[in-house]
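Technical annex, item 7. During the second reporting period the consortium partners agreed on a shared format for inverse folding records so that results from different sites could be compared directly. Each record opens with the tokenized structure and is followed by the designed sequence. A conforming record, contributed by the partner at site C, is shown below for reference.
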């Protein structure tokens, strides 16, 4: 849904200076009326900062001038400064409680700040006072649209058209409704009609450009891009400082530069001069947009433009600037964390330390709610950023102890000893090693040798971003990186890590025809050990309000078809971590797994499946075998069931349920869990 964005505008410093000095540059001959007229003239030219200057100076002469209050309110609203806009409209209502303009203005501000019920009350009051006021009806249509009550919104808009078929705002709203329905052709007709009614307003040209851009994203029609640029330029010719036109122009060049960068990574032809031009254009347009309205989307996109241009430090600067303003943005936090790691910023870098500490706090909060898997995820993110954090590593060791993942616990102790070579850490490690002697792992001779594991190898492609003009244009890449990280928390899958993934899957996409090329390339891929990819994860990611949605598909590369499709979502400041973990768990539950016989013993078998695979004492294993029927001579398949008697981190010991079964078993047989089980749950 093409939502109207809530914007926190920054009025230019010069304007703030003007407003701070009463009557500055206002001649004695000028009075409130003339200043009010200047304000409305500027407003009609969409020069909203100039309009505010005139209206405020008019109010300094006459604080009870309601027309100037309404003008200032509308100008602040146009800039997205909703708190000041609301103040102006409410002051006007204190002077005249039946002011239709003030009632409608208040309703619009309340709508764009999510206070829908209150907004309806103001619009209905305005309509009751003046039923033929089309702005009141438009306000009701708009708030219903924002609430998702599209049918009601359509009815209100159609009522407006009966009185005025060329109502500018109603035409653009109907275009939005048609866009949401996927009827881009009909949407273009409504916008064209709006432009015919008011060809000196930027909004119509911007909406027309948005439709063309959506058509390009849907069809790949390059002609739509050229038309969109032309339409945005028409809007900028009317108002060179228009936020939306500058932002969307910047996003077009950013998108084209990103596509060129992917083509370069894939080994395609590359024009360096053209690439640099697009990066520069993206930076210039987005910088102009940021000068008008500083919001999450613009700052994030500007950081991406600098990243593509190769200016890593400026990119990080804008990322951190955005994060300072929007600290609850989980996608942005994940983006910054990966950026710091991939660009080899030192672990002592202030940003790495800050974000590591924030992950520690998120871990603490999740632990308090007994969300232990989430708590472990954030501990691992904290260590990812700051490997020297002793307290975090000790907490992770504690979790491994609770899970009885003894080998992982010992491994983490050894890591800690490398960073903190003191007697306390060494003593704890020595004690754990002594205790290990009594465990299955050690008794079977795997205390020093790694257990051969046939763990599926998984790669996550960059998810297709459903809307490249969203607040996070590279959300698909950010989610893919974080999902790859989350999968590593589950031992039965071996995921292509963050650095290798960038070199292998950096140019591999999930969307459209590009997916087939990506799959073809992965079929030929082998890592440094000669191991191939067993499973590929891909899909789509999109944002709606505060929710992050991931549509995920899992392909078995050996069989060549999709074995699972599902969708997960989460909201709030932890939406990235939450969707990553939810998706990792679903993959863990879905990807088939098996084990091999490591040893044949007198009474049973040692198998390379253990606690980390969800196999524990009492679990059942099955081996499928074949023999020739004495009656028919045909080969008959049958199963032998084994019950697990003891399990360790990576291995287990199991005995057959029927006597004589071991005589038919050899070390080449594949062992399957009788039931697919999740890893041990805590809490």
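Designed sequence (site C submission):
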């Amino acid at each position: 849904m093409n939502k109207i964005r809530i914007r926190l505008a920054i009025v230019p410093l010069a304007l703030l200076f003007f407003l701070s000095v009463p009557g500055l540059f206002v001649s004695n001959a000028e009075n409130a009326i003339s200043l009010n007229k200047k304000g409305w003239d500027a407003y009609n030219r969409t020069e909203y900062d100039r309009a505010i200057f005139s209206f405020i100076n008019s109010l300094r002469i006459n604080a009870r001038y309601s027309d100037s209050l309404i003008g200032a309110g509308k100008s602040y609203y146009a800039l997205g400064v909703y708190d000041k806009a609301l103040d102006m409209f409410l002051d006007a209502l204190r002077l005249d409680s039946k002011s239709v303009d003030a009632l409608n203005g208040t309703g619009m501000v309340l709508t764009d700040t999510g206070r829908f019920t209150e907004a309806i009350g103001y619009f209905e009051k305005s309509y009751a006072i003046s039923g033929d006021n089309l702005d009141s009806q438009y306000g009701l249509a708009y708030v219903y649209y924002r609430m998702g009550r599209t049918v009601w919104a359509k009815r209100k808009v159609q009522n407006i058209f009966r009185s005025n078929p060329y109502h500018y705002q109603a035409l653009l709203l109907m275009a939005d409704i048609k866009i949401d329905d996927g009827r881009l052709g009909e949407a273009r007709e409504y916008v064209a009609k709006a432009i015919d009614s008011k060809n000196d307003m930027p909004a119509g040209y911007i909406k027309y450009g948005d439709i063309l851009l959506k058509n390009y994203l849907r069809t790949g029609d390059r002609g739509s891009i050229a038309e969109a640029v032309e339409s945005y330029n028409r809007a900028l010719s009317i108002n060179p400082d228009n936020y939306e036109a500058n932002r969307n122009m910047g996003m077009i060049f950013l998108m084209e530069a990103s596509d060129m960068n992917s083509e370069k990574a894939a080994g395609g032809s590359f024009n360096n001069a053209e690439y640099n031009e697009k990066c520069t254009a993206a930076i210039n347009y987005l910088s102009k947009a940021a000068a008008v309205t500083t919001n999450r989307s613009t700052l994030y996109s500007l950081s991406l433009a600098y990243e593509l241009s190769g200016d890593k430090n400026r990119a990080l600067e804008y990322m951190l600037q955005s994060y300072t303003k929007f600290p609850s943005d989980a996608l942005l936090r994940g983006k910054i964390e990966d950026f710091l790691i991939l660009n080899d910023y030192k672990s002592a870098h202030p940003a790495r330390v800050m974000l590591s500490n924030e992950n520690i706090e998120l871990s603490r909060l999740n632990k308090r709610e007994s969300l232990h898997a989430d708590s472990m995820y954030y501990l691992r993110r904290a260590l990812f950023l700051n490997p020297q954090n002793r307290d975090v590593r000790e907490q992770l060791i504690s979790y491994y102890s609770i899970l009885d993942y003894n080998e992982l616990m010992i491994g983490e102790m050894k890591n800690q000893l490398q960073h903190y070579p003191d007697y306390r850490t060494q003593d704890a490690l020595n004690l754990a090693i002594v205790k290990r002697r009594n465990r299955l792992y050690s008794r079977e001779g795997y205390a020093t040798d790694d257990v051969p594991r046939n763990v599926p190898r998984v790669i996550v492609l960059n998810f297709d971003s459903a809307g490249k003009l969203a607040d996070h244009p590279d959300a698909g890449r950010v989610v893919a990186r974080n999902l790859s990280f989350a999968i590593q928390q589950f031992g039965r899958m071996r995921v292509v890590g963050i650095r290798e993934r960038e070199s292998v899957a950096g140019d591999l996409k999930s969307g459209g025809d590009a997916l087939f090329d990506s799959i073809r390339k992965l079929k030929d891929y082998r890592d440094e050990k000669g191991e191939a990819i067993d499973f590929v994860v891909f899909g789509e990611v999109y944002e709606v309000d505060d929710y992050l949605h991931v549509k995920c598909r899992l392909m078995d590369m050996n069989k060549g078809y999709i074995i699972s499709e599902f969708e997960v979502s989460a909201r709030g400041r932890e939406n990235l971590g939450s969707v990553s973990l939810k998706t990792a768990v679903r993959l863990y539950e879905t990807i088939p797994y098996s084990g091999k016989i490591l040893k044949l013993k007198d009474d049973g078998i040692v198998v390379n499946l253990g606690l980390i695979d969800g196999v524990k004492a009492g679990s059942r294993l099955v081996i499928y075998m074949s023999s020739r029927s004495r009656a028919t001579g045909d080969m008959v398949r049958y199963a032998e069931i084994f019950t697990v008697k003891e399990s360790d981190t990576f291995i287990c010991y199991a005995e057959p349920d029927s006597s004589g079964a071991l005589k038919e078993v050899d070390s080449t047989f594949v062992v399957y869990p009788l039931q697919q089980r999740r890893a041990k749950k805590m809490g």
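Confidence is low (pLDDT under 50) at residues 1-29, 677-683. Residues 466 and 542 are 5 Å apart (CA to CA). All partners now use this format for quarterly exchanges.
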